Every structure is written in structure tokens, then in C-alpha cells.
Amino acid sequence: MNPLYANLGTTIFEAMSARARANGAINLGQGFPDGRGPEDVLAEAARALLGESNQYPPMAGTPALRLAVTDHYAAHQGLDLDASEVIVTSGATEALAASILALVSPGDEVVMFQPLYDAYLPLVQRAGGTARLVRLEPPEWKITAAALAKVVSPRTKLIILNTPLNPTATMATPEELALLADFCVSHDVIAICDEVWEHVVFDGREHVSLMTLPGMRDRTVKIGSAGKIFSLTGWKVGWLCAAPALSQGIAKAHQFLTFTTPPNLQAAAAYGLGKDMAYFTGMRAGFQRSRDRLATGLTGLGYKVLPSAATYFLSIDLAASGITMGDLAFCEWLVEEAGVAAIPVSAFYAQDAVTNVVRLCFAKADETIDGALERMARRP
């Protein structure tokens, strides 16, 4: 077996979900909502399944979905994209894989910010790249010019930016975006921007894509996810947007990964992207209410909760909560003794991990949140 994969364990998400099932625990670990998702989007998927072709759609995606992506980003983020610059993928992780495999050659260096989504590092290594890791620190998790200066070299080819950032639930500030754009332009670096949480933002915030900053239009790969936008995480419909010089090369990698994505789900995603602003506003308000319910409950129990600007997640600072256990030990105690599954944020680091922060998912029904809070009243 390829030693890269032979030496990898089961993802922390699957491992903690299995522990939750085995212990009858409430699962606030893996990031999926309790709800069914929007009924009209589900209905469109069913209609297309029964009423339209179920044979291979075009490799780059159906024309309807590619156009819907461009129209959506024009309306919501002011991006001027052509449908030929959109490649539909089987989930955002496949978009990441195709982009990394197409753009990284052996010996290239890739700047990544940890805590990081766990797929990034093995994909870069599988492509022959070398990771240059920037360690972010709670509670602000800020990217600084000094940190970038420590990792840049003549071999720097890419940066991978996740904003909003899972697991920290933070968003890159305008100052950080400007810093990253200047870094990319001055060092001739391509940015892969994992923006799957772009619509799940709170407190009146608006997502800004790095692609919109000066000099970044032709050197950015922007990745999105229907699963996150419509709370349908099992659908695995994603896309990437990039200028032709990038997207045409990435398409060649995509064609030998999944090649294409179920056409009825593409039809439903295209329909959903055209929904009016009220859907997106209401979706955000619903998740914000759940965030506040969990945060208020945890604070009342004496836990120190870190700010959550976006995503389905908020975090507890164990040390500030008076808990001396490390994050992994606490999560193991929590699932075994209290019956609640959470995720240790140290699992999102490849080295030099922060070990006193635990991530919880609040994209749950009120009764699920309240049940978890009742159990978490018991502390180690």
C-alpha cells in the first residue's frame, strides 16, 4: 500500500461519530445538520431524477449548473465569471484534490494555515509537494506578515486558504485578505480558496472572496459547496471557479477522479442557487439562533466559549473554563462519561498543535442542543 495512506488513521470525524454511536451519545462532533434541507431543492432533485436523463452529464458539469454558479456569485459577491471558468465536482474535497493534483508538482512548496481541514496535507504530499505550515493561535487565529515571511521561499507555488475557517469559526479580515493578496502577487503564488462556508456567516457579516482583490482574479481557484449552502452534506456537489489558464488544467485532473456528478443533483443545485435572498438570510438566521442557544447554555455551565463568526461550529477554551485536561482527553471523557461527542481541535494540526480547544457543532435541533447541555452540566 502507498505508505502515505498506510500510515494515516481514520479521520477524527468518523472516529468520534463511531464512539457516539457505540455509547448512545449526542453527536456534536461531525458537522452535519439535523434537518432535511430545503424541501423545494429536494423536490427538484426528485423531479430531475425521474424526469430527466440519468446518463453521463458533461465532464465539466451541466450547462445549467455552471451558469447558475456564475449568476449566483455575480448577485451575491460581485464576481464576473464566465460559465467556462466553472468546473462541477463531486463535492468540495474533490475540487480540492483536482486543483492540488493539477497545480502541484514534486518539489513545490504549499503554504497552509493550521488548524486545517484534514484532507489538505495528504493531497499535497500525494502530489509531491512540501507543506509549509503556518500555526494560528486562539482566540483570534490571525494570519500575520511575520508568519508568512517565515515560510515563503523561491519554491513557494501555492497557498491554501479556508475562509470562513473550520474549525475555528473565524473569517479572514479585510486586512488579512489584503496581506494574502499582496503575498501572492509579489511572490507569483496561486491561491486555492476553500470557501465552502461562504453563506454560513453571522451577525450581519458578508463573505469576501480573495478572488475579488487586486491582482487575484487570474491566480485564484475559488471552491464552493452545494452541500454547505443547502445543508445537504451527503449530496457531495461542489465546484471550482478559476481563470481558463487554471481551470482548463484542473479539468484534466478532474476527469480522472470522479469525471462527473449525478445530473439530478446538479439540476437541484442549479435551482437552489437561484433562490431569492430571503432563503439565504433565513438560513443564516436559523443557524445563528442555534449558535446562540448553545453558546448561552455553555456559558451558563461555566464554559469559556470562543467567538463564532461563521460555520456550524463554536469552540470551548478548556483552560479558560478551568479544565486542566487536554482537548483529546476531554473529548474522550465527554463521549464516554457524559455522552456527548465533540472534536479536539488538535486533530486539525499536523505539528505543534493547540491542545486546549474543543469544537462543537450547533447545526442541530433545539432538543438535541438542550440534551447535550444537560449532559455537559457534568464536568470532569
Q: Layout of helices and strands, plus pairs?
A:
Elements: H1 3-6, H2 12-23, E1 26-27, H3 39-51, H4 63-77, E2 86-89, H5 92-103, E3 109-114, H6 120-126, E4 130-135, H7 145-151, E5 156-162, H8 174-187, E6 190-194, E7 220-225, H9 226-229, E8 238-241, H10 244-254, H11 263-273, H12 277-300, E9 304-305, E10 313-317, H13 327-338, E11 340-341, E12 343-344, E13 357-361, H14 366-376
Task: Produce a short descriptive summary.
With 380 residues, this protein is an alpha/beta fold. It has helices at 3-6, 12-23, 39-51, 63-77, 92-103, 120-126, 145-151, 174-187, 226-229, 244-254, 263-273, 277-300, 327-338, 366-376; strands spanning 26-27, 86-89, 109-114, 130-135, 156-162, 190-194, 220-225, 238-241, 304-305, 313-317, 340-341, 343-344, 357-361.
Q: Your description of this structure?
A:
With 380 residues, the chain is an alpha/beta fold. The chain has two domains: 3-30 and 278-376, Aspartate Aminotransferase, domain 1; 39-275, Type I PLP-dependent aspartate aminotransferase-like (Major domain) (Aspartate Aminotransferase, domain 2), CATH 3.40.640.10. It contains 14 helices and 13 strands. It has a seven-stranded mixed beta sheet with strand order 2-8-7-6-5-3-4, sandwiched between helices. It has a four-stranded antiparallel beta sheet with strand order 9-10-13-12. The protein has a two-stranded parallel sheet with strand order 1-11. Helix 8 links the parallel strand 5 and strand 6 (190-194). Helix 3 packs antiparallel against helix 11 (263-273), helix 4 (63-77) packs parallel to helix 11 and helix 5 (92-103) runs parallel beside helix 6 (120-126). 48% of the residues are buried.
